[in-house]
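can u do me a favor
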């Protein structure tokens, strides 16, 4: 969708147009759900959080000043909500994020026409499950940056806006999280595990971020 078309939908949503609200749900619902699911670790939590994100969108959209950064604004709402949910779960013994639902969305649904053979599909599902398990082992801030980068295809400046952190911090978390993720997936010691946000260079750019295979 062009920036002009999105701006038109946002303007209509700010006027309270229900069709515009629905259009924003259609545009962002899937990516938001993927982000929330992998952060919270449970489908029911992700579904609840997604509803809350769009309820807040409806309540807050009138105050949003369209500066071309709607997506980071929306994902900041989602990130704040899921952080609060994770904190609450950690305070409840025996109930924490990253539960048995992790990877469920990758194993449901019918095999589409022209899909790979069942054995290949099984291997792909197992690989996704391993990735989901590895993501759950990352510290929450690093997992958040990697998921925002993947599900929203945000630049690191946009991620910094969405998470309320300096650009250098977002870059550091992305690089360190990716290195840690690869170490977990390969079974090698995580060389970056002991580094802090302050240890990282300040001159990284998006081009310096090496994408992984999801």
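np, heres the sequence
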């Amino acid at each position: 969708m062009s920036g002009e078309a999105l701006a038109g939908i946002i303007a209509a949503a700010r006027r309270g147009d229900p069709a515009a609200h629905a259009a924003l749900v259609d545009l962002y619902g899937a990516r938001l759900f993927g982000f929330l699911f992998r952060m919270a670790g449970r489908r029911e939590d992700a579904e609840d959080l997604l509803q809350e994100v769009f309820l807040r969108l409806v309540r807050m959209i009138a105050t949003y000043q369209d500066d071309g950064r709607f997506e980071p604004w929306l994902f900041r709402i989602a990130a704040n909500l899921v952080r609060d949910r994770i904190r609450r779960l950690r305070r409840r013994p025996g109930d924490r994020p990253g539960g048995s639902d992790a990877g469920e969305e990758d194993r449901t649904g019918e095999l589409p026409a022209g899909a790979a053979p069942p054995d290949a599909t099984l291997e792909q599902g197992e690989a996704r499950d391993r990735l989901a398990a590895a993501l759950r082992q990352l510290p929450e801030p690093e997992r958040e940056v990697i998921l925002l980068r993947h599900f929203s295809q945000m630049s690191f400046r946009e991620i910094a806006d969405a998470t309320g952190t300096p650009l250098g911090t977002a870059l550091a978390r992305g690089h360190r999280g990716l290195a840690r993720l690869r170490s977990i997936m390969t079974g090698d010691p995580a060389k970056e595990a002991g580094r802090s946000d302050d240890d990282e260079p300040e001159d990284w750019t998006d081009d310096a971020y090496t994408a992984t295979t999801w």
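The chain has two domains: 1-98, 120-214. hope that helps!!
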